[in-house]
Design a protein that fits this description.
By secondary structure, this protein is α+β, with helices and mostly antiparallel strands. It contains 13 helices and 36 strands. The longest helix is centred in the first third of the chain and has 20 residues, at 2-21.
Length: 647
């Protein structure tokens, strides 16, 4: 009996603790009615509805500020429960701090349950594996026991006590997202004498400006904003959603000078770095050879520790180059600073660069939209060329996926925003050559040599390095089944994937027992490379091109091209009867051609595809579809033979 009382006492104590930590109370009637009106039937494709999201920033002349956010979201689906089971806020302890002043779950019936303090975490921000970014933390609210129809609500407060750029402020915010938005408000209160620049992109917002004595209140508002419906291959959300950009920074040149002053002390090399530069460049003749040796060292030997945070949340200042060199790892800015340090030891005019390889930086207004750091070298003509030491698997100094991206060189004079060049697709082509022998019994023996360049080289190298050799064989065996169900891979040879001085080269020997198809007196078959199997990366780059229509441009991220050449030796005792028609489609930013020629007892097939821009606009999309339909038709063309006995 005592045991029963003991268990009951423990249960009662647990209920009392929960009652104190997660107090239940009724939500205000107006809120309950608002939440009840939001039903899944009205939002059939939504996982949740952002009922309101209100942010207010009170800014001081020094750049210090206090920000308060109040957000309420109603959950409609299981995916919505997963998406909003946590709310996170990153901060950098040297600059700011974040507090959660209220967090609760509102049940379907209107009961409010406060989140207990032990469900609001403050932890170091994980960067990669066991690594944590020093002084970077995140506040996490865990919302337990969410059900469909419940809501989450929180109020957070950020205190910026040490602004990264004194006497200045900037911010960028989205007013559209993957969930519908009933109401979003952003308010900025500034001293009257502060000059505020602001810009709305990809849409419109309601705006007002009100003078309040020696202060000015700026207010932007959006109501009843539908969700953005994701498309395969669409540009990043920041490139298509309505967004607000605000800054008090006068120009890009100010940003450039400011970051140079912060980062330049970290470039100082110690003796260990100097000795390593000597070791790596000893015996090399040209400056480019020496630069490449240093670049490959930092890109491959200094481990990149990635993070989803950027800007003030992750901190701006790199670690001193000697520290990064000693610990052998760092985030992008640390690796960039180390490479700058090593290049300066070599006597190269090198600079750290701010960039964003993911989405577009709007040139019109100097707002920090950067999330990455790379390196620039100024040549004898005063022009810059670019190096990204975070990419481990590219032979080039800059990844092909970073073309046409904003770059800000940081130096003492201050530079304007610039953009990386667009690479001609002929500089990044995959060359696929095949020699095929068709036998009189209909069997086929073939060797294919794939020599990728540019984006193809990066993807092939990265992809194959992650796959164990045995799985590579299985993968290629499955791939060749699309050439013919009876295809058998006999041998695969792949060049050293870790050798960045040499392009990737893949040689594959395969056979097919019954390759042709007999139709009466005729024998029909396709050129093996014509079926598109060996250019399968094109389909990855062009994901989303199968949609009849698009709401957003098609983001292929890189220029690229492929050239396939196949020599097919025809069997003795047969005569060529017909070839598929040649085909050509030429548009301003992409093109395709396929041709067949004969040389004695050989058929020479050539196919060439070029994409000259990293993005296909909506106006171009119809032409792209037309071209790809031509590409598809070309894969079905048949070479026709007839036996000499039937002539």
């Amino acid at each position: 009996m005592k045991r029963v009382y003991y268990v009951m006492a423990i249960l009662l104590l647990g209920l009392l603790v929960w009652g104190c930590a997660a107090q239940r109370q009724a939500a205000p009637m107006g809120m309950v009615q608002t939440l009840k009106r939001i039903q899944g039937e009205e939002y059939p494709d939504a996982n949740a509805v952002v009922v309101f999201d209100s942010i207010r920033v009170d800014l001081q002349r020094s750049g210090k500020y206090t920000q308060r956010e109040h957000k309420l979201v109603k959950i409609l689906t299981e995916q919505g429960k997963e998406n909003y089971s946590e709310a996170t806020f990153g901060y950098f302890v040297s600059y700011d701090t974040v507090m959660v002043t209220m967090a609760r779950v509102i049940g379907r019936g209107g009961t409010m349950i406060d989140i207990p303090s032990d469900q609001i975490k403050d932890i170091p921000f994980p960067a990669f594996g066991k690594f944590f970014l020093p002084n970077v933390r995140e506040k996490i609210i865990i919302f337990p026991n969410l059900v469909l129809g419940s809501s989450i609500e929180f109020i957070s407060k950020e205190i910026m006590r040490n602004p990264p750029m004194e006497e200045n402020f900037d911010v960028s915010l989205l007013f559209e997202g993957m969930d519908p938005l009933s109401c979003k408000v952003f308010e900025l209160v500034t001293p009257k004498e502060m000059e505020v620049k602001h810009l709305v992109k990809n849409g419109k917002l309601n705006f007002s400006r009100q003078e309040l004595g020696d202060k000015v209140l700026y207010r932007w508002e959006a109501k009843d904003v539908p969700r953005i419906i994701s498309e395969p291959g669409m540009p990043p959300l920041w490139d298509v959603a309505t967004k607000l950009l605000i800054t008090t920074v006068p120009s890009w040149e100010n940003w450039s000078r400011w970051y140079y002053q912060m980062a330049s002390p970290t470039f100082e090399a110690d003796q260990a770095i100097k000795d390593k530069v000597t070791e790596l460049t000893s015996g090399l003749q040209t400056e480019e050879e020496k630069i490449r040796a240093l670049y490959y060292f930092v890109s491959q030997k200094i481990r990149y520790v990635g993070t989803s945070m950027s800007g003030k949340e992750a901190g701006y200042k790199p670690f001193p180059a000697p520290k990064t060199f000693k610990q052998q790892f760092g985030v992008c800015r640390d690796k960039a600073a180390l490479l700058v340090s090593m290049l300066k030891v070599l006597g190269v005019d090198a600079y750290i660069v701010l960039t964003n390889p993911a989405w577009r930086v709007d040139r019109e207004i100097p707002v920090d939209q950067f999330n990455h750091a790379i390196v620039a070298i100024k040549n004898s003509e005063g022009k810059f060329w670019w190096l990204d030491p975070t990419f481990e698997n590219t032979r080039e100094f800059l990844s092909p996926f970073e073309q046409n991206k904003a770059v800000l060189v940081c130096d003492q004079q201050g530079e304007d925003l610039d953009f990386t060049p667009i690479i001609p697709p002929t500089d990044g082509m995959a060359h696929i050559k095949a020699t095929s022998n068709l036998k009189s019994d209909g069997s086929l023996e073939s060797q294919v040599i794939i020599e990728p360049n540019g984006s193809y080289d990066v993807v092939f190298r990265s992809w194959l390095k992650r796959i164990p050799p045995m799985q590579r064989e299985m993968m290629f065996q499955g791939l060749f089944q699309s050439v013919s169900p009876g295809a058998m891979v006999k041998n695969i040879e792949i060049s050293d994937l870790s050798d960045l001085y040499t392009p990737v080269k893949i040689e594959i020997d395969y056979t097919v027992a019954d390759y042709w198809m007999k139709a009466g007196d005729y024998y029909l078959f396709s050129a093996p490379t014509a079926v598109g199997t060996f250019d399968f990366l094109s389909y990855a780059f062009l994901r989303g091109a199968n949609l009849p229509q698009r709401e957003y441009p098609l983001n292929i991220r890189t220029t690229f091209g492929s050239c396939m050449e196949e020599e097919i030796n025809l069997p003795q005792g047969f005569t060529l009867k017909a070839l598929p028609p040649n085909m050509q489609k030429d548009y301003p930013h992409f093109s395709f051609q396929a041709s067949y020629q004969t040389q004695g007892k050989k058929v020479i097939f050539t196919r060439r595809v070029l994409y000259h821009r990293p993005e296909i606009t909506l106006d171009e999309y119809g032409d792209l579809r037309d071209m790809l339909q031509g590409v598809e038709r070309s894969t079905k063309g048949k070479i026709i033979l007839v036996s000499n006995q039937n002539l």
